[in-house]
């Protein structure tokens, strides 16, 4: 996940994390008027723009291959350390 694609996916992750943080702030603090309705509209705009960017990326043939096909990974370790639990969570 290094290189251009890794940076792209990290940026997407950052955008989603930031949108989630704003949404949680709205839920937690909207009654106190610390966070206004404009936060919801900004989150909506941000997430919709990201959705369109991801859709475009997936339509781009070779560039969307990793997202469509996934990655191969190995979960290795000693017995009874939570490998199956991790896999089930994923």
UniProtKB/TrEMBL annotation:
InterPro entries in alphabetical order: MnmE_dom2, MnmE_helical, P-loop_NTPase
Cellular component GO terms, alphabetical: mitochondrion
Coiled coil: none
Domain named MnmE helical: residues: 1-72
Gene Ontology biological process terms, A to Z: tRNA methylation; tRNA wobble uridine modification
Record protein name field: GTPB3 GTPase
Source species of the chain: Chaetops frenatus (Rufous rock-jumper)
Taxonomic classification: Eukaryota, Metazoa, Chordata, Craniata, Vertebrata
Gene: Gtpbp3_0
